Write a sequence for this structure.
């Protein structure tokens, strides 16, 4: 028809925007992160399912109290109280998507996300030039550690208690502060030995200092630093152990 000018939808005239939705297309960085998210979320969800199955076994009846419990808190914070899996509608921007990916990675790397070691949480050391598997998963990380402690000290510590210690906020804070897992365990050991006196001091709002031998002055300073700085986390761990 003469004089007719075809109408062009506004969205198609706006450079860099989707004709269908009128939104800016996702960046290459977002698309790359989305691909990683889908892959990791699927793997994490498979682990959640396996942990739920293991929870019916007497030996692992408490397995849902560790990495699984934190994963569920993360999932609900992202997708609502009814959500049970990671692989849901992804966050709409790159920063949030990367944050969710980091939550998933934490779960995958946690020893209590699997019973046996996996490529995500396996721990190796080199002996005589050879790579040797020494930890990973609940069996090698916590069951084996409990067995070693019981054999060495004649104690009767369950893997669950070892798990509570290594999964606790206090352990993570100490490990990060001193950059040494052995030091973190030694500090927690001293905190357990002095539990009654420390709790009494906390209740009265007073300072409490552990006294160790002269050859343990560094450890003494580290223990007393923890008592001063991490009171809330210490009391939380006392309730679990």
């Amino acid at each position: 028809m003469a004089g007719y000018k075809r109408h062009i939808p506004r969205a198609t005239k706006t450079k860099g925007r989707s004709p269908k939705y009128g939104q800016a297309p996702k960046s290459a960085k977002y698309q790359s992160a989305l691909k990683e998210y889908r892959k990791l979320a699927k793997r994490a969800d498979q682990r959640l399912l396996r942990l739920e199955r293991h929870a019916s076994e007497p030996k692992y009846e408490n397995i849902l109290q560790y990495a699984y419990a934190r994963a569920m808190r993360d999932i609900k914070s992202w997708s609502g109280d009814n959500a049970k899996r990671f692989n849901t509608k992804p966050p709409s921007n790159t920063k949030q998507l990367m944050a969710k990916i980091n939550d998933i990675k934490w779960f995958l790397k946690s020893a209590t996300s699997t019973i046996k070691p996996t490529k995500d949480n396996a721990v190796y050391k080199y002996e005589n030039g050879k790579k040797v598997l020494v930890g990973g998963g609940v069996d090698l990380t916590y069951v084996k550690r409990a067995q070693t402690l019981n054999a060495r000290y004649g104690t009767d510590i369950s893997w669950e208690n070892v798990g509570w210690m290594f999964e606790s906020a206090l352990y993570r804070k100490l490990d990060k502060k001193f950059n040494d897992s052995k030091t973190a365990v030694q500090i927690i050991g001293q905190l357990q030995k002095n539990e009654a006196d420390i709790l009494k001091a906390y209740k009265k709002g007073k300072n409490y200092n552990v006294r160790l031998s002269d050859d343990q002055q560094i450890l003494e300073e580290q223990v007393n630093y923890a008592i001063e700085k991490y009171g809330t986390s210490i009391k939380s761990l006392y309730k679990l152990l």
In short: Confidence is low (pLDDT under 50) at residues 8-23.
